[in-house]
Each structure stands twice: as C-alpha cells, then as structure tokens.
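A.,

Following up on our hallway conversation. Structure tokens first:
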C-alpha cells in the first residue's frame, strides 16, 4: 500500500515532520518513505491510500490496561462509598472479576479493543483476571485480538486471594498461554505474553516461588506495585522487606518485567528498579480516581528507570493519559515547571515504543523503514506553527482522539474515515449489552 498526501510525524530519534513524501507498506511493515511519484513508478500495482492532507503518525501504545474492567461502566457500588483503595479493590474489582464468565471475558475484550481502534490505540498490554473463568481465558481474549486486528500482550493475574486452587489455575493459564506464544502461535507478532501477578499484597512467598519456577521461558512478569501504602505495609509485615525489595529477592524484577504504578516506593526501591532495568508504568487517571497519590515519575526517570504510560482500564484514549500526566504533576508539586512535554513524550512515545518492541520482538512505534505499519491519520489543523520541537504541546493542548480518522495495525486498515472496516460495531456492542445484566446480577449477589 502507498500512503500519499499526508504530513508524516515519524517519532524517530530525532523526531521529524516530513512533508511531500509518501509511505510504502508491504505486508506488516513500513518499507519505504519516498516521493509519491517514485513509489508509484516502482510499485505500480500497490493500492493507494490518500491521507487527504492529514497527519500520519505511529499508533498509540498503552503499557498497562485491564479489559476485564469494562463492565464497571455505570455500575453502582452497593452500600457506603469506599473510603480508600483497599475497599475499592474489595467492593468493586474483586467482586466484578468474580462475576465474569467466558462470554463476558470475551465481550469485555471486544468493547475495549473497539474503543482502542476508534481512538488510535494500536498496541495494548493487558492484565487479566476472571477467577471463575480462568482456564483458556487468555485464548478467549486472543481470539478477539485475532479477529479485531489489534496488537496485544496478555497475561493472567495470579493471586492467593481466592485460595490455593485458583492461584495454581492462574499459574497454569499463564504457562499454557506463554507456551502457545513461544511455539510461534502469535498472530505474526500481534500477540505476546507476560507472566501476570496481581500484587505483592495478595501473593504469598510460596506462590511467588511457584510463579518464578513456572516461568521457565523467562518472559517478563507483570505486576501492580505499591499502588497504595497498604501494599508496602503488608510486604513489611510478611517479609520484613519493602515491596520492590521483596520482588527483587523473589526474582520477579528484570529487564522484561513490568511494574504498574510504583506510587509509594522509596529511593532504594527506585534504585532497584533502575539497576534491574524493570519497566514501570504510570496511570495518572487511575491514581487520581483511586485517590492513591501520584508516583514520583520525574525522579524515577532521572534515576534511569524506564517509565511508560498505561491507562489501567480507563478509556483507550492515551492522549488523555498524556494530558493528565502533564497536568497532575504540576498540581501536586504546585509548580508549573514540572513534567514538561518532552517528559510526557519520553514515557508515552519512546519508552512505550521500546516496551512494545521488546514484548512483540518487532520494531514498533516509529515511522521508519522496517518498523511495523501501525499507523493513524489525525485530522488536525494547527493555527500556529507546528514543528518537531513544539509538537508535544500541540498534542497536549490541541489534538483529540475524535480527530483520529484511520487506524492501521500491521499493515491492515482497521478503521477508515472513522468507520470500522471489517467489524460490526453495533452487533458487538449489542452482545456486550445483553451480557451486562447477567454480570451485574452476579456482582450484586456477592453483597
Ligand atoms: Zn492495573
């Protein structure tokens, strides 16, 4: 395919905005950037996709999400409102995930992935839980990934909170799915796996040992860390160690592992995350919603920690996460100089791209020959000069997800002119809607 008539934002290093050139994609890859005339002459049979003067940029990447939380939308938590994060876990998430069956696991993934495609998010790293439908749950989600055309990395959150049998079933589900991926059944690199762990506060030493032993393929772990102080105090109580120290001792950290949140870690823990090259993901909308505080991401980056951006199950609109990041660090520090646009780009573009490229074993997240053709068109009309230098602020203050008109993953157009190409959105949403009363009834039965 030859993509013509667009302004190309490469998100390479250094970033460039290229005008007057076209992009050739072949198979799943971007293979050339050249003058339109040259590409058409050399590849006369290629289909032409006219960008109509829009910006073309790499699709957005989400480093930490939860498809399983979809049915929380509009759900009333019974009784008194939760006072703090531990009650939110118990009254919302741990009751909602128990309400899911095979069908609702699948529907949850569908609605989140449709949301992602429509808003230009092309790669998602998911963290799944469904304690009453563990076996094969990752394959059910993988089926949605396959059919929808999105790119996703999946895992199952192992936890001891539902007893020994379910902890072991969670381990088994991760191992089963990791083996599937390692045997090459990975949708040509659109599917990847991590080994999921819920959080230190729901994992015994014995279960952590079992997980490390079971992870014989050596994929990265994916775990929530110190989202609330309770995770730190629980860890100190059971092990005498802070959370990151405990996970380090258990062999959970490392250059492929992902730690979500890290809000309440101390300086020594930051140093451990940096020295082990562990990924950290920041989800400010979730942190604000749960009132758990905001991690010191600037210090972590300064200390050499690889900090990425995720959405923790919020809407699949990563620019909203960018904007929240940009704003909230100024507010909590009472200082407008904090968290500049380049810091947000470092997380949301460069680190997220590096994480995605590592996860899928393919170059993802920039418009350069050899990179995966994960692209979006953005119908943005700047009324002031826009350069590679001030682009972060044009995105932060000017671009919206409603401006995304085309989404392509691995060379396949999934949305064109704001319409999904091969998917029946109404049918998918109707199916999800039909399921929701059953999920909500099961949720309410637990109180
Ligand atoms: Zn999470």
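Then the amino acids I'd put at each of the 447 positions:
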């Amino acid at each position: 395919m030859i993509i013509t008539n667009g302004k190309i934002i490469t998100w390479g290093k250094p970033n460039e905005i290229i005008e007057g050139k076209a992009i050739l994609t072949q198979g799943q890859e971007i293979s050339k950037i050249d003058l339109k005339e040259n590409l058409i002459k050399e590849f006369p049979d290629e289909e032409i996709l006219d960008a109509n003067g829009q910006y073309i940029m790499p699709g957005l990447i989400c480093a930490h999400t939860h498809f399983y939380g979809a049915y929380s939308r509009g759900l009333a938590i019974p009784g008194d409102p939760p006072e703090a994060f531990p009650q939110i876990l118990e009254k919302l998430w741990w009751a909602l995930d128990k309400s899911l069956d095979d069908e609702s696991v699948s529907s949850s993934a569908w609605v989140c992935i449709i949301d992602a495609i429509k808003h230009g998010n092309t790669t998602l790293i998911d963290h799944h839980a469904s304690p009453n439908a563990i076996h094969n749950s990752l394959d059910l989600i993988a089926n949605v990934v396959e059919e929808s055309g999105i790119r996703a990395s999946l895992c199952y959150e192992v936890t001891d909170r539902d007893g020994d049998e379910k902890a072991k079933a969670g381990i088994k589900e991760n191992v089963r799915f990791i083996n599937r991926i390692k045997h090459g059944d990975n949708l040509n690199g659109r599917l990847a796996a991590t080994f999921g762990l819920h959080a230190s506060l729901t994992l015994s030493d014995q279960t952590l040992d079992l997980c490390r032993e079971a992870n014989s393929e050596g994929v990265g772990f994916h775990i929530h860390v110190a989202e609330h102080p309770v995770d730190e105090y629980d860890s100190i109580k059971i092990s005498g160690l802070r959370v990151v120290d405990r996970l380090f001792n258990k062999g959970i950290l490392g250059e492929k592992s992902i730690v979500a949140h890290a809000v309440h870690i101390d300086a020594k823990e930051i140093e451990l995350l940096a020295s082990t090259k562990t990924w950290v993901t920041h989800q400010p909308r979730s942190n604000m919603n749960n009132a758990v505080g905001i991690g010191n991401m600037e210090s972590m980056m300064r200390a050499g920690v690889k900090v990425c951006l995720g959405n923790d199950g919020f809407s699949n609109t990563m620019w909203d996460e960018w904007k929240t990041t940009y704003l909230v660090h100024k507010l909590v520090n009472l200082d407008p100089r904090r968290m500049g646009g380049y810091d947000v780009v470092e997380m949301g573009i460069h680190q997220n791209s590096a994480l995605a490229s590592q996860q899928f074993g393919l170059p993802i997240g920039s418009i350069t020959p050899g990179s995966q053709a994960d692209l979006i068109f953005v119908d943005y009309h700047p009324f002031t000069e826009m350069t590679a230098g001030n682009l972060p602020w044009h995105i932060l203050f000017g671009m919206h997800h409603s401006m995304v008109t085309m989404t392509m993953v691995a060379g396949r157009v999934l949305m064109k002119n704001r319409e999904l190409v091969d998917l029946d959105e109404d049918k998918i949403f109707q199916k999800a809607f039909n399921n929701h009363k059953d999920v909500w009834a099961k949720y309410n039965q637990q109180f």
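Residues 2 and 309 are 31 Å apart (CA to CA). Curious whether your intuition agrees with the design.

B.
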